[in-house]
Amino acid sequence: MRGKAVIAGVGHTIYGKHPGRDRISLIVEACRNALQDAGIEKDMVDGVLVKMANSEPSILYGQKVAEALGLQPRVGASLDQGGAANIALISYAAMAVDAGLMDIALVCYGDTPRTGSRQVYHRPRGDDAVFGWYATAAGYAMIHQAYAQKHACRPEHFGAVAVQCRANGAENPQGHLNKPITLDDYMESPLLIEPLRRDDCCLISDGGAAVVVMSAERAKQLGIANAVPVLGFGQGQESWDVHLRPNLTETSAAASADTAFKMAGLEPGNIDVAQLYDCFTVTVLLTLEDYGLAKRGQAGPMAAQGALALDGSLPLNTSGGLLSESGTPGLQLVIEGVRQMRGDARLQIEGAKTCIVSNQGGSMHTHATMILGNPS
Amino acid sequence: MSFPAPETNDLNRPYWDGLAAGELRHQHCSNCGNNWLPAREACPRCLATDPVWQPASGRGRIVSWVVYHKAYHNAFADRVPYDVSLVELDEGPRLLTNIVDSDAGRALSIGALVELKIEREGDLTLARFRLVSDEGTA
After folding, report:
1. What is the distance between the alpha carbons of residues A98 and A103, in angstroms, rounded to a whole number?
2. The domain at A135-197+230-373 falls in which architecture?
3. Whole-angstrom Cα distance, residue A79 to residue A53?
4. Which residue ranges make up each domain of chain A?
5. For residue B133, what are the domain limits?
6. Please, which pLDDT band fits residue B136 given cuts at 50, 70 and 90?
7. Cβ–Cβ of A146/B63 closer than 8 Å?
8. What is the pTM of this model?
9. In a 3-state reduction of DSSP, which class is residue B16?
10. From the candidates A121, A133, A191, A238, which should be mutated to test the interface with B, based on the most B CB atoms within 10 A?
11. Residue A248: which of B64, B81, B124 has the nearest Cβ?
12. CATH topology for the A5-117+204-228 domain
């Protein structure tokens, strides 16, 4: 599948707060922007794939979104895979286009947990609520603890990730949080679910995002000059809940990345820039190691030594990630990856030829990877 | 606000009945020997459907733990900071719990040995654990 499909356009809303607006309106706005970016008409779209809304899962959701877009696509669906769903949907779109099921797809997401309900992130975790086991952050705190103890990882190692993402996000006027932090700020931020500090945790943001997927051949035919080729993609599933999984410090992100690298014909050393799902700082460190971008136990020191900075060996989350640009699950990372490959990112990494993007969901339950290249 | 209540059903009732009777039980697969929690109809390793309940020794070790500094439910508001710990039983199953009776200043640590301490919590009987001395162990 290497290079067969492209991302021909990207769009999103302002990220942050959208009081009074519903999530489908945000999706429509993002799709309108993505279609404009691709320079195509709405009625050319015959596939609409949407990630289930975190804060309000519902049946036939993909059809509600297509209705709001005024489309009767050949392929329409929603997917629940938590935060891995957006890259998974782009990969399914790529394959469905290749198989002739559809011609041009919108992959989109929108939600309003910031001004609506954020209860989903604070919910009791099954029967273990009797022990006080609540909130999405708790599973990541358990992983953070196990990882930090195993590798003698210091708070500064996690803090380096937060500081870098916040610095990048501070340069992004469309992002949710434009407030850089120092390592001292990070160290002083309050403990929520120890060992997690507040600044280890991503934002909760309202926002919508969308990308246009078609074949490379179709993009060429339509004269879309800056269509970004999808070089590889893959997935991996952890399945076991955090407390039941045999290994807390390595994840199925390794399988996801391995599949993507093989498809792309690339190796970790070939990657120029990374957009990694930073719902919590530990997620970035584990993903770096699972992807083979860092040796086991070395992602923390690598971050602390500046490797993830804009002038480092592997610039990370150049628009701010979930920690600063938007807490929405994943498409903003894809969109920034597309911009880096087109050469029109705000914090452009000069000469970047490849970008790896990770999405993941649950408590590192689901993993999806995508590798993007320069427009041909 | 009331204390959270587990959903009991025919499948997991032997677990809760066991605690009320003073023992921690886990499921055991007669076909492949797998031990696990929480209750399932089929063994997640070999998919055999005739698991039996067995009493656990009550001994295990800490795999990881967290400390809540914020309560996400009013029932825990006066307990912060409190731990939720992940324990692996000697028989294999893993479970979430609270570590109780720990001496002040004696920090939790990964690999620390723990033993069962069944506690009443209103109408519930819960499997909590306490740290044990690791003298005499490898």
Report:
1. 9
2. 3-Layer(aba) Sandwich (3.40)
3. 9
4. 5-117+204-228, 135-197+230-373
5. 57-138
6. very low
7. yes
8. 0.96
9. helix
10. A133
11. B64
12. Peroxisomal Thiolase; Chain A, domain 1 (3.40.47)
